[in-house]
Amino acid sequence: MAERGQLPHPAKRLCCRPGYGSGCRPGQRAGGSGPGGGALCAGPSSAAAAAALGLLPLGKTQSPESLLDIAARKVAEKWPFQRVEERFERIPEPVQRRIVYWSFPRSEREICMYSSFNTGAEDPAAGPGGAAAPGGAMDVAAAAADENRLPFRRGIALLDGGCVDNVLQVGFHLSGTVTEPAMQSEPETVCNVAISFDRCKITSVTCSCGNKDIFYCAHVVALSLYRIRKPDQVKLHLPISETLFQMNRDQLQKFVQYLITVHHTEVLPTAQKLADEILSQNSEINQVHGAPDPTAGASIDDENCWHLDEEQVQEQVKLFLSQGGYHGSGKQLNLLFAKVREMLKMRDSNGARMLTLITEQFMADPRLSLWRQQGTTMTDKYRQLWDELGALWMCIVLNPHCKLEQKSSWLKQLKKWNSVDVCPWEDGNHGNELPNLTNALPQGANANQDSSNRPHRTVFTRAIEACDLHWQDSHLQHIISSDLYTNCCYHDDTENLLFDSQGWPLWHEHVPTACARVDALRSHGYPREALRLAIAIVNTLRRQQQKQLEMFRAQKKDLLHRGVTSITNLEGWVGHPLDPIGTLFGSLMEACRVDDDSFHGFSDFTENLGQCKSLEYQHLPAHKFLEEGESYLTLAVEVALIGLGQQRIMPDGLYAQEKVCRNEEQLISKLQEIELDDTLVKIFRKQAVFLLEGGPYSGLGEVIHRESVPMHTFAKYLFTSLLPHDAELAYKTALRAMRLLVLESTAPSGDLSRPHHIASVVPNRYPRWFTLSHIESQQCELASTMLTAAKGDVRRLETVLESIQKNIHSSSHIFKLAQDAFKIATLMDSLPDITLLKVSLELGLQVMRMTLSTLNWRRREMVRWLVTCATEVGVYALDSIMQNWFTLFTPTEATSIVATTVMSNSTIVRLHLDCHQQEKLAGSARTLALQCAMKDPQNCALSALTLCEKDHIAFETAYQIVLDAATAGMSYSQLFTIARYMEHRGYPMRAYKLATLAMTHLNLSYNQDTHPAINDVLWACALSHSLGKNELAAIIPLVVKSVKCATVLSDILRRCTLTTPGMVGLHGRRNSGKLMSLDKAPLRQLLDATIGAYINTTHSRLTHISPRHYSEFIEFLSKARETFLMAHDGHIQFTQFIDNLKQIYKGKKKLMMLVRERFG
């Protein structure tokens, strides 16, 4: 850390000694000593002193600690050495030595804090309420792997390896060398380390290793730990100014000359410069009394804080931000936030200092202005870092013992950041229009108007508002200071009572603000006080819940009649920027697992408040304000349930809504880690009943606002927790939570008559629920959980099915539930559950109805699955879906998927059908097929014919439907397909008829020589040819009319001349075996059409021909010649045709030359 390889900063304090003659001077040892006699081993010889260092337990000391050491230790902790010198005219040298000795830090904890990231062993990285800071600190496995690379661990290894040498303490300055052992690629290096310290804090470090980092390097750690662990092996000298003061003139001159001689290359220019200035009467150096001494300790004006390399903090944060979340930069920034929390917990002033440096770099991030200009939102992880930044500032300004001037300084800085245009808004997307609720509390009368009047609330707004809060309220001080603070005088006639009916203290304040106080107390190392306030808040919430229930019961009839809902919480506690429920839960859970010693913090809170100084609260029962049988654990669980069940409005903006979901899931995951016992089950029962009966105050009440945050995720957790203990209550809770009013087509009447305070705050609000897909998936998960649990219970399955059909509006989610129910009902290890199968089928039918008229890419999968499900249910289910096909399927689906699958052999085998059942099912399938063919002949005719093959009447009916539709709407491709099918089934004449109908719909132009219908045309001509001359004669005029492509016509012509028509005909028809003449109809007509097509195609191609197509064109002419030559005067026609080409296209000289070469 710090200025590696540089000299320490010059000492600020000027040390001088007035001339006291030969008498004893301030700072001189009583009894005196000879020149240079200042060396002494630092360590105390007594075991008591060793115990004070932590080397021995106090219980095992051999003799009491001396009064000198006790006094010197206290002075060394609190007083700058200059004040000691000014306070006393004469300080005996042994006293000076003991003060200097005790001024070095005695705890390794701070050394560790300044030389390593927190690895997650403790909780300082936790965000508000104990929730892990976004992204979390390093996970335990990664931390363990990296632990040996931490400077602190490496420093310990260097110390244990005997690498620390030449350790010398001169006054308040420690120096030494640390040898870095040779590595495979690095030689052995010796690092010179220097450390300045004051009042048990390291104030500056210097190391020649050259490493630059936020934290102390391993060499500084090694030297510091050497001094802490082996103080008796460190030579201790008084400050160098004291030693010099004991020298006479000759000694001083000798000292200076020897110093220059030893280090002449480094110090000679400086020495000469100083000599010149001292010899000059008017020089600046002679105007100052005394001279600086880097070993003399701190002056009165020096700030007493640990050394923090501010430049490195800024550089590292800037680097991490520039990486944009890549290379683990988000994790590194979270570790820095964790370090700030660790410092706050140690009550180290550098916590606020470090956070200021981090915030300045965050505010200077160039991406902020870029995002604002482009109108884009920052990434989710980056947004969470800003949230943690705001929460940390809230903790800092709520420090119960910060000075007013310090708070004013922070407020000024926060307002400055808050006023910057690019300062991120609290809700992540846009400023919300809710009132300033943080100051809606007894202390908020003088709320900061500048921040409340701003159009947008930024991440710093809450911290700015918190600057107006104080800790002077006597009731609040009593709550956090004592476990015995009670009042038996109870009057239940006011809203904000200070005590409940049992005399226990209550704390009425805006809940997030009150919980922010708890977080501040925890963060600043006051866990006991945080716990006391948390208990008071939870007791207040429980009392409020009870009062709300009583109020609703009194007005229930009227409220339910009017359908009015009153949202009392515009700010939800779960997903709130201050995470109040997470804070309370974390504080109470922390109390469950910490041991007494670690939980007491560092000092008595009341000692700093200046009240009740004699109170030994750590020995009093902390469970004073809990019911019999209750514990911190039960209280933590109960407050989590209260918060999760709170009815609250869904916030605006994507980020705020995602945060609601994320925080809810985080809290539930923590609850799931707790093993439920009988006591906790009672809490669950109690809260479930409260939530069900709590009316508009509860998210599970009978009347809720249309835009309330849904309870699906929470209810699923409640359901699974209660199910083994109280199934009726579990189902009642889960079924109540299934609703999703925001998707209902008509809003409840309550939306039209909201209470005045709601209508004024949320005017004309229509939900833009960005997380709706996630919410619907959670609703689906809740339903699936209930279906699984209800297997085998007919009544419950019917109830769950009814709830699904009423409340779930997404076809994909209902389909998923249908699939889930099917899987559960048909598990391999048991017989199928027919009731659950029917539920699955019913849900599948609903999906079919919902998606029948809408596009859905999974529709075919859904239809196939439904048939599978119906098959499992039984033959009556299959028969039913076929008889009602028009409400479930399109005609194509009904014939190509449903009826085909039903009629397959696998289905018949699966259902073990007898002949009668098979025939009945086949009859339904044929009826369906004919209905579909009538409705959509284009797509269903072929399937209908296939399905009706085994029933003559049905088959004839289907064929007639095809004929009727052939002239109306069927395409040539559909007709050709059916015609081929007819030929395949042994109906060549029907095939021929359909083929001729198809030909009337076809039109092939001259250049469509790759058209997909060509094969159909060739097949149709071949079929006609096989049937006989009459059929061929009938189809050729249709071919000539429909086909203009020369190559296709020539192919047909060639095939017709190869064999005699009817030679391969069916039904025993045979002709004489004579080939048809090209000079007579119908082939003459086909030949003329083919020659004409070649001529027309030739002219068309020559219009836009390019040289690269010349050779292809010559081949085309060659094929044309073959066709021309089939006519008796074909040679003459072709010659005339070529001559015409030469004349018409004589400009295309190269092409015509090629024509002459080939054709003359």
TrEMBL record:
Keywords: Metal-binding, Zinc, Zinc-finger. The keyword DNA damage does not apply. It holds the Pfam family ZSWIM4-8_C. GO terms for cellular component: Cul2-RING ubiquitin ligase complex. GO terms for molecular function: zinc ion binding. The keyword Metal-binding applies. Coiled coil: none annotated. Residues 191-228 form the SWIM-type domain. It comes from the Eukaryota. This is Zinc finger SWIM-type containing 6. The lineage of its organism: Eukaryota, Metazoa, Chordata, Craniata, Vertebrata.
